[in-house]
Design goal:
The protein has 366 residues and is of the alpha/beta class. It is built from 13 helices and 15 strands. The chain has two domains: 172 residues, Rossmann fold (3-Layer(aba) Sandwich), CATH 3.40.50.720; 169 residues, NAD(P)-binding Rossmann-like Domain (Rossmann fold), CATH 3.40.50.720. Helix content is 36%, strand content 17%.
């Protein structure tokens, strides 16, 4: 199979869809890999690295799409790429369709085969291709949240870990999944007081088992959220419903109960956000203020640490890329029902129900 690795063109997206190590594994099995020139520069991999691994370097994104049977990316195609995607071409990337109707309709028109990293599932219901980026984003949420609590960026002027004689900051984590656990771990490491909310008692028990005593858990409901928002310095939104829009747990009216200069980092922004006032931002212009509350809602947070992120992503995507390249998408998905859950749009038809539900469409919509 001919596999294309285009350069990411989303704002400040510095990751690349595959490392030279991944290219080498594909080349060894007889597949042809085409990499757009400079695609890996910001992740620490130059054209010479890819060429040495067996890739053909192409000068433009147009050529990569033109010659490839399968496109392997990091982020969803943006408008400039819509016209480059061919009928029957496999596109394997993060899509997050439920929060983007324009993208959904564009991919339907392309009649391509869209396989979403974020909906491939393991037998236990975990999301192996989303997990590493959730780990990165959860840790970064505290790193960025601590920064935006500083007064020069309009935060309340608080050091999250405190100092002797001065209490540390309070962190509220919404969701005890991968993002939430990683955020709690980082916040606890800084010495913050951390509260983790979730509706899944098994997850809360897990947090209690693995975290230090200054990380506490509570059942998630509106009453508890409102209670904690009054004193919380940093809120991390880490709620995920696989393939669907995130529920709005913090409403606009709740912001008025928070302390001026408090910070919200909504990691769920890719799926529409779990804060009502969330809107996607970029690394170029990452934050905005509503009702004196700083919002950091960058939709591709791991793009700021592309070396770490690209290595982590290729570690988990490569086995699936090899299956798709070796067998084609139909046989690969027939043989692997967990990979088949990644199928979102096939030749113009939506085959993943949460997307239909997100837009209020029925199964006849095409």
């Amino acid at each position: 199979m001919k596999i294309g690795i285009p350069k990411e063109i989303k704002n400040n997206e510095n990751r690349v869809g595959m490392t030279p190590a991944g290219v080498l594994e594909l080349s060894k099995k007889g597949h042809e890999v085409y990499v757009q020139s400079t695609a890996g520069d910001f992740s620490g991999f130059d054209d010479k690295d890819y060429h040495a691994a067996g890739a053909t370097i192409l000068p433009s994104i147009d050529r990569v799409y033109e010659v490839s049977d399968m496109i392997v990316k990091v982020k969803e195609p943006i408008e400039q790429e819509y016209g480059l995607i061919k009928e029957n071409q496999i596109v394997f990337t993060y899509f997050h369709f439920a929060s983007n109707q324009n993208l959904t309709e564009a991919m339907m028109r392309s009649k391509s085969v869209c396989i979403a990293y974020e909906t491939v599932e393991d037998k236990d219901g975990t999301l192996p291709l989303l997990t590493p980026m959730s780990e990165v984003a959860g840790r970064m949420a505290i790193q960025q949240g601590a920064k935006y609590l500083e007064k020069p960026v309009k935060g309340k002027g608080l050091l999250l870990g405190g100092v002797p004689g001065v209490p540390p900051g309070k962190v509220l984590v919404l969701g005890a999944g991968v993002v939430g656990i990683q955020a709690a771990k980082m916040a606890a490491g800084l010495g913050a007081q951390v509260t983790v909310l979730d509706v899944n008692m098994n997850r809360l028990r897990h947090v209690n088992d693995i975290m230090p005593s200054h990380v506490v858990t509570e059942f998630s409901n509106e009453y508890n959220i409102r209670k904690h928002l009054k004193t919380t310095d940093l809120v991390v939104g880490g709620v995920l419903i696989t393939g669907a829009k995130a529920p709005k747990l913090v409403t606009r009216d709740m912001l008025k109960t928070m302390q001026p200069g408090a910070v919200i980092v909504d990691v769920a922004v890719d799926q529409g956000g779990c804060i009502e006032t969330t809107r996607p931002t970029t690394h170029e212009d990452p934050a905005y203020i509503i009702d004196d509350i700083v919002h950091y809602c960058v939709a591709n947070m791991p793009g700021a640490v592309p070396y770490t992120s690209t290595l982590a992503l290729t570690n988990v995507t490569l086995p699936y890329i090899l299956k798709l390249a070796d067998a084609g998408w139909e046989k690969a998905c027939d043989h692997d029902p967990l990979l088949a859950k990644g199928l979102n749009i096939v030749k113009g038809a939506i085959v993943y129900d949460p997307i239909l539900e997100a837009f209020g469409w029925d199964e006849t919509y095409a």
